[in-house]
From TrEMBL:
InterPro entries (UniProt xref): GPCR_Rhodpsn (IPR000276), GPCR_Rhodpsn_7TM (IPR017452), Olfact_rcpt (IPR000725)
One Pfam family per UniProt: 7tm_4
Topological type in the membrane: Multi-pass membrane protein
Family: Belongs to the G-protein coupled receptor 1 family.
Source organism, top-level taxon: Eukaryota
Record protein name field: Olfactory receptor
Record's GO cellular component terms: plasma membrane
Subcellular location: Cell membrane
């Protein structure tokens, strides 16, 4: 009987904010504007990092990867969410739900690892400046970034396959605006302890461990910077790391606030509102933080814009 019910699942209904029409009308223009800024800002970071030869360094290579991640992460659910905010039919196919789940899990997990890699890059640049070009070679950059993308994708595919192979029975209403894996697991009519255990192990590997590594890296960086004799040297070192630290605090702060607080048995619309803001606001602010706090990015952007305007 469970197998029969499982084979009949062809689509899910994403409840989202359907019970709050006024909130839907408020969120649509707000999320549309933030999504547009996210696309333009992160695309500009990628373009500047590629087109300006002065930015062909490990730091901006990883920054370009972070911008691509933010574009992929928001694009995995925001366009469909915007459509659902204005429509009565808020369904998503079974295959579409699995794809959305896998993409959001993969990009979010990769960002956790990539932020730790960026902290390691800053540690080598400041604490091992003479050996930095050798230690952080182009090959190592490709290896670290590629490993983060591939391993997190494999992890997310495994989590998605295990979740979507469960038998679903009863209603197929997901109490979320996207196919968030925990919300989908609530619809399963079989034991989900294996899935939850798998997710817990992944969360431990991707949240406390990278965050601890980042904190250790910046503790060593701070100890090194405080030994710099000149005030100008200290300001330059702090300026180099401040943008990355701001992004780390923003990302992990919102993730911990949303996912580490006590869970209620019933879905609350406030949780979804905070999730929308976190998932859309954070990727939007990343390029703004880097462009405002980084003189090299602003100067490179002016050069690229000047060359483009001249060619036109």
């Amino acid at each position: 009987m469970e197998l029969a019910n499982w084979t009949k699942v062809s689509a899910f209904f994403l409840k989202g904010f359907s019970g709050y029409p006024a909130l839907e009308h408020l969120l649509f223009p707000l999320c549309s504007a933030m999504y547009l800024v996210t696309l333009l800002g992160n695309a500009a970071i990628v373009a500047v990092s590629v087109l300006d030869a002065h930015l062909h360094t490990p730091m901006y290579f990883f920054l370009g990867n972070l911008s691509i991640l933010d574009i992929c992460f928001t694009s995995s659910f925001v366009p469909l969410m915007l459509v659902h905010l204005l429509s009565v039919q808020k369904t998503i196919s079974f295959i579409g739900c699995a794809i959305q789940m896998c993409l959001s899990l993969s990009t979010g997990s990769t960002e956790c690892v990539l932020l730790a890699v960026m902290a390691y890059d800053r540690y080598l640049a400041i604490c091992q400046p003479l050996r930095y070009p050798v230690l952080m070679s182009h090959r190592l950059c490709l290896l670290l970034a590629g490993a983060a993308w591939v391993l997190c994708l494999l992890k997310s595919v495994a989590e998605t396959v295990i979740a979507m192979r469960l038998p679903f029975c009863g209603h197929h209403v997901v109490s979320h605006f996207s196919c968030e894996i925990l919300a989908v697991l609530k619809l399963a009519c079989s034991d989900t302890s294996v899935n939850e255990g798998f997710l817990l192990v992944g969360a431990i590997l991707l949240l406390p461990l990278p965050l601890a590594f980042i904190c250790l890296s910046y503790t060593l960086i701070l100890a090194t910077v405080l030994r710099v004799p000149s005030a100008a040297g200290r300001r330059k070192a702090f300026s180099t790391c401040s943008a990355h630290l701001a992004v780390v605090l923003l990302f992990y702060g919102t993730v911990i606030f949303i996912y580490m607080k006590p869970k209620s048995k019933e879905a609350r619309v406030s949780d979804e509102v905070f999730t929308v803001l976190y998932a859309v606001v954070t990727p939007m602010l990343n390029p703004i933080i880097y462009s405002l706090r980084n003189k090299e990015v602003k100067e490179a952007a002016r050069k690229v814009w000047g060359r483009t305007w001249t060619s036109w």
